[in-house]
Amino acid sequence: MVSRGFFRKLTAYLLLVMLAQSCANVADASDSNNIRTSCWATATLSENVVAVARDEHRWSCSGANQEFSIDAERVLLRFDIPPVQAPVRYLLSRRSAFDALHLLAIDEDGAVRQTSFPAVALRSSMAGGYFKADLPDVTLATRQVIAAVDLPTHKMTLENAYLSPVDSGASAADLRFLLLIAGLAGMLVMPLIFNAAFYRALREPFVLWHSVLTTSLLMTIVVTSGLSVALFDPPAMTLSWMTTLLFGVTISSGAMFTYSFIEPGMMHPLLRRILPYCAAWAVFLSVFHATFPFVARPVQSVVYTAAFGPILAAFVCAMVDSLLRGSRAARFQAIGYAPLALVGLVRLVTGVSPWLHSADAMVLFYFGCMFEVLLTTLGVAERFVTIRRERDRVRNEADLLERLSETDPLTGLLNRRAIERQFEQLREVGFTALAVIDLDHFKAINDGYGHSTGDEVLKAVAVALKAGSNVRAYRLGGEEFILLLRGQDVDAQAEFRRQAIPATVADAVPGLAGPVTASMGITAISSVDAFTTVYERADKHLYEAKSAGRNRTRSELGPTHSSVTAQIDQVMIA
C-alpha cells in the first residue's frame, strides 16, 4: 500500500510540474520580447526575395490565427518590429525538413541586410524541438525582419516561428524544466536494468520488445528536448530526421510488445496477426519520410501523419478486445499507453485538419513516456511472476510424473528405468558395486498363499533393502532387486541386507510355512562399465548362487568382512 501511494503521489507531482511548465511555455511565447509573425506571402524559388518582400500586394495579414499553406515553393514570413522593441538576435521555430532559410533585416530607410542558411547548417535551440538562426544585424532602425523558407514540409515551421533576443530555453525556469527532463530520462534507465534481470531468468520476447520500446522513448526524450543540445549539440536537421525515425521505432516496438505481451488466448487471433504488420508499416513510414521528405512535399506530412491512423485503430481494438477477455497484461498497457495514445490523437487530428494549428503536445508526451514505462514495467514484472509461477508448477508436475514413472508402485523403490538413467551419474560419484538379489521359490508363495500375500512379501523385502546414503535399492521386476553400493565393505553391506530379508518378511507377513530367503550375485563397477555389462556379470554370479543351493551369495569382491568391522547402517536394516 505504501509503494502504491508513493507512486500515485509521484505521478501527480510530475503531472502538476509539467502542466505548470506548459503554462510557463505559453507565457514565454507571449513575452513582449518575442515577436510573432504578422504577415506571410508565397513565391517561387526563382523570384527575388527582396522584391517579394517589398511588394505589399503579395502579403496576407490576418492576425495571430492566420492560416499558412506550404503549397508554394517558398513561404515568406514577416515580423514587424515596433520602434521601442529591444533588438532581436534569433529566429526560432519547430524543426522539420526544408531546403534553405533566407533572412532579411529591413531598416526604416529601406536598407536591407540579408543572410542565408542551408537547412543542414542550422543549429538546434535549447528549446526542445526548435532550431535557431542568427539574424542579420538588427538595429533600433530595423522595422521588419523577413524569413523565407524554401520547400517547407510542415506547417509547424511556419506556425511556431518567432524572433527572440536570446536563445529560448536558457532561462532559470527552462533549466529547471531541463533538469526535470534529465531526471525523467534517468528514471527510464531503471526499467532497462530490470528487463536485463527478467530476461536472464525468463527468456520471453516481450521483455526484449519492452527494452526496445523503453530505449526508443528514452532517446526520443533526449532528441526532442534540450538535453541533446546540452550534451552533443547536433545540427537541427539531424535531430529532425532522428525524431522521425525514433517515432517509427517507438510505434513499431510498442506494437510488437503488445503482440508478445498479451497472454495467449486473450486477444483475437486476427488482431494479434495484424500487429506485426502494423509494426513493419510504422518503420516503413518513418524511414521513407525521413529519407525522402520532399517526394510529395505539400501533402506528405499530412499523409504521413494520417497513415498512422490505422495503427492507432488496430491498437485500440486490440486493447479493448483483450480487456473484454479479462487480460491482466492489457490492464497495465491500457493505463500506461493512455497518455501516449492521447498524444497520438492530438498529433493526428491537428496534423490532418487544415483549420487547426499543428500540435505535438510535447509536455504531455514527456509525461506519457514516464507513465507508460512505469506502468508497463509493473506489468512486465507481474507477468514475469505469473509466467515463472506457471513454469514452476509445470516443472514440478513434470518432475512428479517423472518420479512416478521411475518408481515401483508396489514397493516404493525405484525401477529399472530409474537405474538406467542414473547409473552413469552414480558411477561418477563413487558407487563401486552392484548386487542382484532374487527371492528363492517366490512362485510357491504366490501359488500357495495368493498374489496378495506375495505382494506383502515384496513390500517387506523393500523394507529390508531400504536405501541409505551409500546404498541405492531398485526393484527390477517380479521378485528381482538390485543394490548399488559405495564406501567400505560394499559386499558386507549387501550381505547384511540379504540376510535381513527372512526376519523382516516373517515379522511383516506372519503365517508363512517357512522363511523367505534370497540369493545374491555381486560384482564391482569399473569407471568405464555400462549398466548392462555390470548387470550381466552380477546376474551370472546370481545364477551361480542359485545353482549352489540358493540362500547364499556369490561375489567377485573377495571374502566379506565381519559385521563388527563393516560400516553399515544396522538400524535401517533392522
From TrEMBL:
It comes from the Bacteria. It catalyses: 2 GTP = 3',3'-c-di-GMP + 2 diphosphate. One of its GO terms (molecular function) is diguanylate cyclase activity. PROSITE patterns: GGDEF, PROKAR_LIPOPROTEIN. The keyword Transmembrane helix applies. Keywords: Membrane, Signal, Transmembrane, Transmembrane helix. The chain crosses the membrane at residues 177-199, 206-232, 238-262, 274-296, 302-324, 336-357, 363-385. NCBIfam families: GGDEF. This is diguanylate cyclase. It comes from Peteryoungia ipomoeae. The lineage of its organism: Bacteria, Pseudomonadati, Pseudomonadota, Alphaproteobacteria, Hyphomicrobiales.
